[in-house]
Amino acid sequence: MRRLELLDLACGNSSLSRRFARESARVSAVDASAPVVRLARAREPKEPLGIRSLVGDARRLDRLESGGFDVVVSDTALRDIRDADRAVGEVGRGLRPSGRFVFSICHPCFDVRSRSAGEIEYRAFTTVVSRKVRRYREPYEEPASCKVGDGAFQESPGFPRPLSWYVTALGDAGLVVERFEAPAPRPERFDGRPQAPFVAEVPLHRVLGGRRLADGAGGRAVSGRGAPGRARRARDTARR
Ligand SMILES: C[S@@+](CC[C@H](N)C(=O)[O-])C[C@H]1O[C@@H](n2cnc3c(N)ncnc32)[C@H](O)[C@@H]1O
User: Fold this and answer.
1) Alpha-carbon distance 102 to 8, whole Å?
2) Domain boundaries, given as residue ranges, for the chain
3) Which site in 58, 65, 75, 139 is 20 to 30 Å from 112, CA atoms measured?
4) 5 lines ligand 1 (CB under 6 A)
5) Pocket lining: 109 vs ligand 1, CB cutoff 6 Å
6) The model's pTM
7) Which runs of E-coded beta strand occur in the chain?
8) Per-residue pLDDT tens for 116-146?
9) Does domain 5-232 have CATH number 1.25.40.10?
10) Parallel, antiparallel or unpaired: strands 126-133 and 116-123
11) Ligand 1: does its nearest atom lie under 6 Å from the Cβ of 58?
């Protein structure tokens, strides 16, 4: 049986890549950070899975062939990519017709470092845990950090965007939205923490899935050469 060709976009230290490779997918993994890709490659000798790890900009995947992938995944990374519509355009180009793009994002309301916060109010006989949210409608830039290894973090800007932005970007790349999920966190993640009941009610992540149209409409928006819907989308120019 043919192995699934899978691309992990902005792969970080390749934990997700490795899970899919163990399930026998043939995995390519791309990240813009050379140190992060070094960490990803360093895992290979201990558990060889044949992952092709590349340093590259998700917005310009020139080294990857068009229509070569059955699936592209991206875990909590699109928000870290400036002008990520170009990356989504590249996904459209890289997928074979009917291929799928599945990605997760931190929720642009509830999991934004500078614009949302958990709040615990201790009242008489009860405790209320809630979330404050400031600013949602337009894309903006904020400082952020992401975990790149055991206890190691990388500082880089984040670009929170409204959920509609992602749906539009998928459409512009020739992908139809198939899934839109709000997964609940695994219980063990929040064991014993006071915010656990709140987080169960207000999931901090969204998972979206798109499929490239079979008629070859995907791949219109390639490498910044004029994505059709870009004029309709606010760019990541708004600052703090
Ligand atoms: C929050 S981390 C997520 C990493 C990984 N997907 C995970 O779940 O562990 C975001 C990643 O996006 C990468 N990144 C940011 N901009 C990028 C770009 N233009 N092209 C490729 N990767 C990029 C960063 O280097 C970082 O590794």
Assistant:
1) 10
2) 5-232
3) 58
4) no
5) no
6) 0.87
7) 5-9, 26-31, 52-55, 69-75, 95-106, 116-123, 126-133, 142-149, 152-158, 175-181, 205-212
8) 888 888 899 998 888 888 889 999 999 888 7
9) no
10) antiparallel
11) yes
